[in-house]
Design brief:
This protein is of the alpha/beta class. It has helices at 44-52, 74-79, 97-106, 110-113, 120-136, 152-165, 182-195, 208-214, 232-236, 239-246, and strands at 6-15, 18-28, 33-37, 59-64, 67-68, 82-84, 170-174, 200-204, 217-222, 225-230.
């Protein structure tokens, strides 16, 4: 059996008497896009928060490349190879695009990230990494602009780049196309598709066209539990999914 790069087993997250995530198991393989879908209230974002250490879990186990991370705070999970973007863009708006990426790259070593007396070698290495990311994100022409001045679509790509800069094994993306126009959605779709060459990607996304087109595996959540999991074609043709989420909508409609 192939070993998962990210494995969450029987995850439970309660808020008082309310159970937001109830016994969810998720196995994400290396070099795949694994999408998590479901309506509002299904528990998707809470699951993301649990995986990345934003909220503590009540029960279960989370491992990254075989290393237990359930007890670690979020910033230490980054060092184990788990990075994420957020549903609401989270950047340093007054810093340039280049500086945002450089800080993310240096953040791999938190003690050095804001150290004024870093070695020339460390600065050069971070700068070279940033240049590669700028090219890949198609943001080279924007490198010196303040991140807060970028159009929304470019801000979202920059945020994905900041997750990439942390040298992760797994990148979690929370609705990366939210609020985007058609051209920006196409660019983000291509970027996510290509990320699997280096990383595993866990994706929360309401655009079913993207989910069904680029995912290797789709997990459908309902009321804090896994309803169905499988390949995109299997999931889209599952009667339980069609009844609960898709109904008569087209693949371009939201779930």
């Amino acid at each position: 059996m192939t070993v998962a790069i990210l494995e969450a087993v029987n995850i439970v997250k309660r808020y008082g008497k309310f159970t937001a995530v109830n016994g969810v198991t998720l196995r994400v393989m290396a070099h795949t896009v694994h999408s998590v879908i479901g309506p509002n209230g299904a528990g998707k974002t809470t699951l993301f928060h649990a995986l990345t250490g934003v909220v503590p879990i009540n029960e279960g186990s989370i491992t990254v490349d075989g290393v237990e991370v359930s007890h670690l705070p979020g910033h230490k999970r980054v060092l184990k190879g788990l990075t994420r973007s957020f549903q609401v863009t989270s950047l340093f708006p007054n810093l340039s695009v280049h500086e945002n990426l450089r800080l993310a790259a240096q953040g791999r070593n938190p003690a050095q990230a804001l150290h004024l007396w870093r070695s020339a070698e460390s600065l050069t290495a971070a700068g070279e990494k940033v240049d590669v990311l700028l090219e890949r994100l198609n943001l080279s022409a924007m490198a010196s602009r303040a991140a807060g001045e970028l159009p929304h679509g470019q801000q979202r790509r920059l945020e994905v780049g900041m997750a990439m800069a942390g040298q992760p094994k797994v990148i979690l993306l929370d609705e990366p196309t939210s609020g985007m126009g058609i051209e920006d959605i196409s660019a983000m779709k291509r970027l996510i598709h290509d990320l699997r060459e280096e990383y595993a990607v866990v994706l929360i996304e309401h655009n079913m066209d993207i989910v069904m087109d680029i995912s290797d595996t789709v997990t459908v959540m309902q009321l804090g539990q896994v309803l169905v999991e499988g390949k995109p074609g299997e999931v889209s043709n599952d009667e339980r999914v069609r009844h609960a989420y898709l109904g008569s909508v087209t693949t371009e409609d939201n779930a």
